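Hi support team,

I've been running sequence recovery on a batch of backbones for a student project. Most finish fine, but this one hangs at about 90% for roughly twenty minutes before it completes. I'm not sure whether the input is malformed or the queue is just slow. I've pasted the C-alpha cells below so you can try to reproduce it. Let me know if you need the job ID as well.

Thanks,
M.K.
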C-alpha cells in the first residue's frame, strides 16, 4: 500500500482549516491542522510533511516569516510550500515567492483548484540534499 502524502494546513481560522482538511482527506491525503506557527512547529517536530499550505495573516508570527524560517533549515529547503491568502495584489504574490513559497493561492478558491495545485506540486520529483 502506498503511504498517503501528508499536508500541514496552517491558518488561524479554524473553519478554513476544517474545510481544507476535509477536502484533502477526501482526496486521499493525510492532513494535520495548525492554527498558528507555534503549533505548526510542534507538528514539524513529530512528522515530515510532503507539503505545507500556510496563510499569510496570522497572529504572532505571520506565514511569510514562517516560510523564510523553514527555508533556512536544510531539511525543509525543498519542501513544497503553498501560501494561501485573501491578500491578492501582485505585490503579495511576489512577497510570498520571494519568501520561499512555491506557489500562491488566492482565497477563496475552489476545491478543485486546491487539489490541482497540491497534486501538481506533489507529482514533481523533489531534489535530495
Amino acid at each position: 500500500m502506498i503511504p498517503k502524502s501528508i499536508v500541514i494546513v496552517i491558518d488561524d481560522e479554524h473553519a478554513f482549516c476544517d474545510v481544507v482538511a476535509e477536502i484533502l482527506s477526501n482526496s486521499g491525503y493525510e492532513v494535520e491542522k495548525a492554527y498558528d506557527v507555534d503549533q505548526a512547529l510542534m507538528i514539524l517536530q513529530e512528522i515530515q510533511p510532503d507539503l505545507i499550505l500556510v496563510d499569510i495573516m496570522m497572529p504572532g508570527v505571520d506565514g511569510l516569516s514562517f516560510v523564510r524560517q523553514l527555508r533556512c533549515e536544510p531539511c525543509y529547503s525543498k519542501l513544497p510550500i503553498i501560501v494561501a491568502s485573501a491578500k491578492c495584489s501582485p505585490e503579495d504574490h511576489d512577497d510570498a515567492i520571494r519568501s520561499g513559497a512555491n506557489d500562491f493561492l488566492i482565497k477563496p478558491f475552489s476545491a478543485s483548484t486546491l487539489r490541482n495545485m497540491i497534486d501538481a506540486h506533489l507529482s514533481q520529483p523533489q531534489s535530495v540534499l
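--
Follow-up from support: It reproduced on our side and the slowdown came from queue contention, not your input. The helical segments are 14-26, 37-46, 63-71, 90-99, 111-122. No action needed from you.
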